[in-house]
Design brief:
The chain is globular, with a radius of gyration of 16 Å. The chain has a single domain, classed as Lambda Exonuclease, Chain A (Alpha-Beta Complex). A 5-stranded mixed beta sheet has the order 1-2-3-4-5. The protein contains 7 helices and 5 strands. It is 43% helix and 17% strand. The protein is an alpha+beta fold.
Length: 169
């Protein structure tokens, strides 16, 4: 089973969203917020694709990788799920290290906010990544969809209509 950066991101956001996504129930295509994020990603740094490399490796896809300086650049719309963003890029750094690229770094970029955040992978983070990977695999292979979390962040989720369509818990 290929674990992706999206799996790590969704693991921190919502286990139900992770399970639904992994089981082929994709709602992102109907979300205006997801569309806005894609536009920000595509238009914020128009010449970046000429300067940096795209990498696909062991289930991850890094859009912008500075091979000379070993830096992953990840663009996000807002800091609303900052911890999820951090662990997504830490997973990228973990996979790079497992494939012979030690000491890579990452930069989370929030163009709308004009902010950046440096992300490193410590030894403790590596151990947590391995633990989370096992937990993600367990969630993905479960026959049962996790319950909805019913939090304020649900209102902006692309799965909101799916989760709150009258299902009784």
């Amino acid at each position: 089973m290929q674990i992706t950066g999206t799996h790590f991101n969704y693991y921190y956001v919502c286990h139900r969203k992770l399970w639904l996504f992994a089981n082929g129930i994709n709602m992102e295509h109907t979300s205006e917020l997801v569309a806005e994020g894609k536009l920000i990603h595509e238009n914020s740094y128009p010449f970046r694709s000429e300067k940096y490399t795209e990498i696909e490796l062991d289930g991850i896809k890094i859009d912008y990788y500075d091979a000379r300086n070993r830096v992953v650049h990840e663009i996000k719309k807002s800091k609303s799920h900052k911890e999820a963003h951090e662990w997504q890029v830490k997973y990228y750094l973990y996979v790079l290290k497992q494939n012979g690229v030690p000491e890579a770094k990452a930069i989370l970029e929030y163009p709308k906010l004009r902010k950046t955040m440096d992300v490193d992978l410590s030894n403790e983070d590596e151990a947590l990544v391995e633990k989370m990977k096992l937990e993600i695999e367990s969630l993905l292979t479960s026959e049962v969809c996790p319950p909805r979390i019913n939090q304020s962040k649900c209102k902006n989720c692309s799965y909101f209509d799916f989760c709150f369509s009258g299902e009784d818990e």
